[in-house]
Write a structure and sequence with these properties.
Helices cover 84% and strands 0% of the residues. With 130 residues, the chain is mainly alpha-helical. This is LSME1 protein.
Length: 130
């Protein structure tokens, strides 16, 4: 008493139907599990047969994008550092100018004080009294 297998008498169209159902379930699973961006990557992987050809190209593209971004960041950082150094030098020059002005003004004020003291001494000696 052998049990007849259901698989023996199935025509080819039934096998294709099973494959269609399995593909539909896989697509439904991808839609439920994967976000929109990764669904595109999965579809491309199916088109390449899952051999990884697309992922290698994607990795190279990502690496190039990373290096371009890194180099641009370095250039912008270098420009900013150069600008800050330029501003520091300019500020130092202005501070030196202000310092020299203050020193010359201080000397002028001291000379005016000396002249004032000399005038007061001369007036006191000349006998002008109120």
């Amino acid at each position: 008493m052998e049990r007849p297998s259901l698989e023996i008498n199935l025509p080819d169209t039934h096998e294709e139907g099973k494959l269609y159902v399995v593909d539909s379930l896989n697509n439904l699973n991808k839609l439920n599990v994967c976000p929109d961006g990764s669904q595109h990557a999965l579809d491309e992987e199916e088109n390449t047969g899952g051999t990884g050809e697309n992922t290698a190209g994607s990795n190279i593209r990502n690496q190039c994008l990373f290096f371009v971004t890194f180099i641009l960041t370095l250039i912008v950082s270098l420009a900013l550092v150069s600008f800050v150094i330029f501003l520091i030098i300019q500020t130092r020059n202005k501070m030196d100018q202000i310092s020299s002005r203050l020193i010359s003004e201080k000397k002028t004020i001291e000379e005016l004080k000396k002249m004032n003291n000399m005038i007061l001494k001369h007036l006191n000696q000349s006998g002008i009294k109120e």
